[in-house]
Amino acid sequence: MSDHNIESHIKVYWNVFFTLLAFTALTVAVSYYDFGSIFWTLFVGLGIASIKGYLVSAYFMHLNSERKAIYYLLLLATLCLIVLMVIPMAWSASASSPNEGYAPYVQEDDDRGYVDKDYYHPSNEGH
Amino acid sequence: MDIDIPYNVKEREDTGLYNAKLGIWLFLASEIMLFGALFSTYIILRTGDTTWMTAVKGAHLNIPLATINTALLILSSVTFVMSWVSLKLKNLSGFKKYMGITLLCSVLFLVIKFFEYKAKFDVGHYPSTHNFYAVYFTMTGLHGIHIVGGIIVNAYLWLPGAKMWNTDPDRFTNRIEVAGLYWHFVDLVWIFLFPSIYLL
Predict the structure, then answer these.
(1) Inter-chain contact A3–B74, Cβ cutoff 8 Å?
(2) Chain A, window 30-49: residues with a beta carbon less than 8 angstroms from a chain B beta carbon
């Protein structure tokens, strides 16, 4: 990398930094906005996080110009991650009640602002 | 007898990388799996629990402090890159300055985290209180341990480890690049943790 090249890189790094700060502010701002559905709330929230993640990995971690070995390595890790995330989620989604598969959780109202008595129900017995 | 470790500056022909860089990426791939498992746990526990949002509301999470922490980590990431750039420009004092700022940001992050945890403990919110707190403390705790690990390595490279600059500057520059890749990953994890736990 020549010195001139590095100078232009420095500018990019600081631009990425300010963009990341702006996106952080945006993430907090949109969290106060009611999108009306959980899907859009998650889509916007995680969408902004993904853009920030892209900026960090592409520019700070230099993934925009990296060797093939690393791309293959990350591809493999991501594929394994997706498979391993889908298995428990599919298993959880196929459970007949939301609680199935979890130990019954009972808690008395103790001024923490919530009561969990309703969470326990007979279908959990014997699990 | 001196045995030189091969490919710590020169790139290997087959991978096109110096060994430490391949090593850190292998480690980061395993870290993706580690944090991925926890994110998966989080999603399943949350979607299966009808009391989740009530617990989150009762937690009174400190969004301003968490936002400051996010900004601190982003700043520490850019100063880390700048410390590496300084070495590329043969400027050791620039490296010291930027790495110093990185370390300062990392320590401030932990101080803020300490006060956040303390506020939870003071009102009797522990990991055993509700699955939300179990997830909150496990994920932010594991992330915090990564910050501590980073601080130890970065502080070493900042002070005693920097001696290598006099004997083997290219190798030292590579060490900073590799430590930086780890640090940016820790920043990356927080970028997803912050909205997932505090905002959504």
Answers:
(1) no
(2) 31, 41-42, 45-46, 48-49
Rounded to an integer, what distance in angstroms lies between the CA atom of residue A28 and that of residue A1? 38
Which residues does B180 contact at the CB level (< 8 Å), separation at least 6? A60, A61, B80, B81, B83, B84
Question: Residues B47-91: pLDDT tens digits?
Answer: 888 889 888 988 889 999 999 999 999 999 999 999 999 999 999
> pLDDT digits over B140-155, tens only?
999 999 999 999 999 9
* Residue from A11, A41, A96, A112 whose CB has the most chain B CBs within 10 Å, to mutate: A112
Q: Which two tokens stand for residue A98?
A: 């939301």
Query: Is A78 within 8 Å of chain B by CB?
Result: yes
Q: How far is the C-alpha of A32 from the C-alpha of B198, rounded, in Å? A: 12
| This prediction's pTM | 0.88
Q: How many other CB atoms are found less than 10 A from the CB of residue B84?
A: 24
Quote the minimal CA–CA distance from A114 to chain B in Å: 6
Q: Which residue has the tokens 């890159």?
A: B81
User: Using CA atoms, how far apart are residues B113 and B163, in angstroms rounded to an integer?
Assistant: 32
3-state class of A97 per DSSP? coil
What angle separates helix B63-88 from helix B169-193, to the nearest 10 degrees? 160
d(CA A122, CA B12): 62
Are the C-beta atoms of residues B66 and B156 closer than 8 Å to each other?
A: no
Alpha-carbon distance of A117 to A91, in angstroms, equals 26
The one-character DSSP state at A58 is I
